[in-house]
Amino acid sequence: MIVSFSFFLSCNAQIENARTETVKIYGNCGMCEKTIEKAGNLKKTAIVNWNKDTKIATVTYDTEKTNQAEILKRIALAGYDSDSFLAPNDAYNKLPECCRYERSHLAQNERIVSHQSIKMAMPNTTDAPHTMSMPSTVDTPQTMTIKSQELNQVTAVFDNYFGVKDALVKTNGKVASGKSKILLNSIKLVQMDKLPMDVHTVWMKVLKSLQENASFISGTSDVAKQRNKFMNLTKDIYALIKVAGYEESVYFQHCPMYNEGKDADWLSKEKEIKNPYYGSEMLNCGSIVEKIE
What we know:
Number of helices: 9
Largest sheet: 3 strands, antiparallel
Number of domains: 2
Number of strands: 6
Structural class: alpha+beta
Oligomer: single chain
Order of helices and strands: HEHEEHHHHHHHEEE
């Protein structure tokens, strides 16, 4: 126990701008403890220490890099409920039999809602606990407004993606580079703790790839190289827009000839085909695969 406590203190000392809070996380056993702590921990950013007897986790994190909500979301995605986030059913069902804790608390705690309809307030450690909307099969005007505000930040990402696409249609590497810098900035500005759970799940999967591809395109004016990375960028934006939606119809379009006939896709707000992989050389080469509404 002394060794464990010393190790915890040592880890905490590595975290700058440290804030420590306690929160209840539901689980059963030592295996749960390992999973919860692994999901919540981030090197030099967050340390989670969970007690299987009390179900209380001591959470220490760098306030400049993360917050309690982001940590609890990661833990929820690993299959463990807290009083702020409910684990998706598929994540809970994948837990080993011994780790499937009793979920009777869901009926007792009206702040817990299904993962599709979480409406989480921004973390505030000095005010009242986080508040969440009540479960409902139909969105009220209030929850629709909250959802709109949550998704506006990813809408900016989509808008800037379209800016990069339009520059490539015109075979303008300099403009594509500039538009991608704006895209990269909009990606960095997204606050994950404000995203609905389903969008947050996809965002965490594509974030690293989004940043890498946008950064590469912004760092060169070579259109051929930009187009190659734009293929990968499109895959991530497609996955994100499918779950987050967009304010108007979006067309998922396909070029059968690019990449030595291995094909490539792109997203456009216009139904008319304007190929970003060939520009004026073969502007109208391609077809509509899907209309996303």
